Amino acid sequence: MPRLTTVLALCLGMAAPAQAAEFTWAETTDPQTMDPHAVNSTPVLGFLNNVYEGLVRRNKDMEIEPALATSWEPIGEGDGWRFTLREGVTFHDGSDFTAQDVLFSYQRASSEQADTASWFAPVSEVNVVDDYTVDIMTTAPNPIFPDSIANWMILDSGWAEANNATRPDKEAGNHATLNTNGTGPFRVTAREPGLRTVLEPFEGWWDEAAHNITRAELTPIQNPATAVAALLSGDVDFINPVPIQDTERLKQNPDVKVIQGIEARVIMLGFPHEAETLKFSEDVTDANPFADARVRRAVAHAVNVPAILRTTMRGNAEEVSQLVSPAMRGYSDANAARPAYDPDQARALLAEAGYPDGFSFGLKCTNDRYLNDESVCQAITGMLAQVGLRATLDAMPVQNYWPELRADNYDMFLLGWSPGTFDAEHPIRFLAATPDEEARLGSWNFGGYSSARIDELLPLIQSEIDETRRQAMLDEVAQILQDDMAYVPLYVQPLIWGAQANIDLTQRPDNFFILRWVTVN
Amino acid sequence: MLAFVIQRVIQSALVLLVVGLVAFSMFRFVGDPIDNMLGQERTQADIDRLRSQLGLDQPFPVQYVKFLGNAVQGNFGVSYRQGRPVADILLERAPATLELAAVSGFLAILIGIGLGVFTAIRREGFAANAIMSLSLIGVSLPTFLIGILLIYLFSVELGWLPSFGRGDTVRVGGWSTGFLTESGLKALILPSITLGLYQMTLIMRLVRSEMLEVLRQDYIRFARARGLRERAVNFRHALKNTLVPVITVTGLQLGSIIAFAIITETVFQWPGVGLLFINAIQFVDIPVMAAYLMLISVMFVGINLVVDLLYFSIDPRLRADRTKAH
Known about the structure:
The complex is a heterodimer.
Chain A: H1 2-11, E1 21-27, H2 42-48, E2 56-58, E3 64-66, E4 69-75, E5 80-85, H3 99-109, E6 123-130, E7 133-138, H4 145-148, H5 157-162, H6 175-178, E8 186-192, E9 196-201, E10 213-220, H7 224-232, E11 238-240, H8 247-251, E12 256-270, H9 293-302, H10 305-311, E13 318-319, H11 343-352, E14 359-366, H12 373-386, E15 389-396, H13 398-406, E16 412-417, H14 425-432, H15 452-463, H16 467-484, E17 487-500, E18 503-504, E19 519-520
Parallel strand pairs in A: 1-10, 1-11, 14-15, 14-16
Antiparallel strand pairs in A: 2-3, 4-5, 5-7, 6-7, 8-9, 9-10, 11-17, 12-16, 12-17, 13-17, 18-19
Helix pairs in contact in A: 9-11, 14-15, 15-16
Chain B: H1 2-30, H2 34-37, H3 44-53, H4 60-72, H5 86-121, H6 126-140, H7 143-157, E1 170-172, E2 175-177, H8 182-215, H9 218-225, H10 230-268, H11 273-283, H12 286-314
Helix pairs in contact in B: 1-12, 5-6, 5-8, 5-10, 6-8, 7-8, 7-10, 8-10, 10-11, 10-12, 11-12
């Protein structure tokens, strides 16, 4: 494509613009919607980060930096946060960005119809002080609030009202499902769901453009082999992801490059803490061995994670000891060691727990949700069998999987968790807190793990302003989870992107592809 | 005659009802659409609310009757994934599939008949035997493998043709066509070969065997005895009579081409209704799945109905109501 532009420019007898280029890329999933508040998922939020902006944004190292707000400061003793807004920002349709848009976007994104409402659970009210000052009040001191709203994108209130899109509509869709009007570096100039989405640079963007893209097109390609072929043949400039089995081959090809990193997603094994009996066992029908921490610890020692990473993941992932990866805020360095592979220790623990010959049970797994999930589960099944834990593997597509877990149809399950806030508090809230529908706690804690101390620490962690004290509490929670072996964390899922050799880009652990950091050489 | 037509139409409608019922009852095994529609921070309350909004909490027969009632009025509901009316999405995607099927069918008929005649006339020749052996590959290799092999040969190694998609399309009224642009035509080549290869070999073998049958007939011998040229005999006398059964089979295969397009469309990321259906399954997009399956069954039932009625009007033996002993 770049060549064509050059040829055209030469034909027309003018100098080609300095390295301006068209760019095409392919992802497995097409963003479901163009509405930034309708679906809280990586494909949607990642794509829309190029079109819409929040008050704050994340830089290349995932740190928070000013975007539509130039600064923010706590109000009083943790009553809330005051955001000073950037002046002179315009939306793609030319209307001005003011505090009214922030208020409107808060009402829209925290409404019942929105999928992003949970982000605003700590917020009591939002007050417009003047055109460029907004106070966001919280029910309790909330030190990580500015960090938690990088994906809360601001819509133009006038545009939404004029087009009857004041609330997201997940079921029937509305104007905002197919059209956009953000403040970000790119405008959506064509949107054909499932086929292609075209972006062009927004001339009136407030920030300095570091990219050299004149037009970008996203095409979903589901079939991994087709995506790799499209990259190799030069039909696309970038693909995400690259199948693990193709990484070696692409690395040896001088025309393309493979960009590898560590995602935020931790893959782990979960247990039925609350179940009275096993559901799928042939020999233990009157008890639940997994309620015993020694048995869970035996599982941890029996699974040879380094071997899984060497074989199934082909050296593309890293071991992990806790529910978040080292790249996350609040990672516990004090608990960085994970249980070593030690089958003898596993057998001893099982004997101690009263199962010297092990037992049989059912392991539930996905086969289309995480990288190589089914192969990983097959490997785990073989490793557990070495110590007498005879698992029957049941792998299924993810849309059948969650209903099964919700109905407690498992003896052990595989789970991946990526914290939306990039903070260690997130998995504690969703996976470790005692399930409580009212308080919106533990909604993914399928096994019903419960620790009074963790439940006591969680609200303190959420409202602690002092970093050191907060980290001490996070360390304590990580310690409890390790002692109890509530989950067995295995590894951090890798990110593997592929691009033409002439493309420079930045990979971020949240798997967002940020177009404004792309240069075509 | 009228009675027969009415009877067949009623039968077709019954078939459609049963297909709809079976398809609809199978959706429960495809999974739960709710998890795809809500983010990871959803609560049980959100799940329950959405479930009742979509009517998924109602008993299965109620859901089915509702679906039928709407479908009869041409309303197929709203896609869970795209939040747009399913009818709009299907109309948007249909041209891609129909163009691909048309080109595949055309290639299959043209090349199939040509090679069929060739292999029949040169029965003992080396080339004919080579073609017959090669045709076995066309029948036995799975579609997706043929597609991937073609992509790797013509896109990755040679760089002649695009590896995926439809190229640039032009809108003509409500129809998007790839016939009017160079990239659109280029993009058609590989997928239409992939999709048409099986039908091509089928037609070729059918033509060959029919042709061999016809060439043994007496009137061909007489034609030769009269001193007619070989070409006139082969093409004017023999081929004409060969094509009658071929046309019937080809007509029936038309439905298969459209239905089998699913795999080819997935391999080539071809934006037709087949790819839409595969995406719908992955997402448990029930309205789209239901509409697609109904559409395909309407097509098959329609083709069969037309064939039946044609036979009925051609073949007097089928007119059961008129057979009287004379």
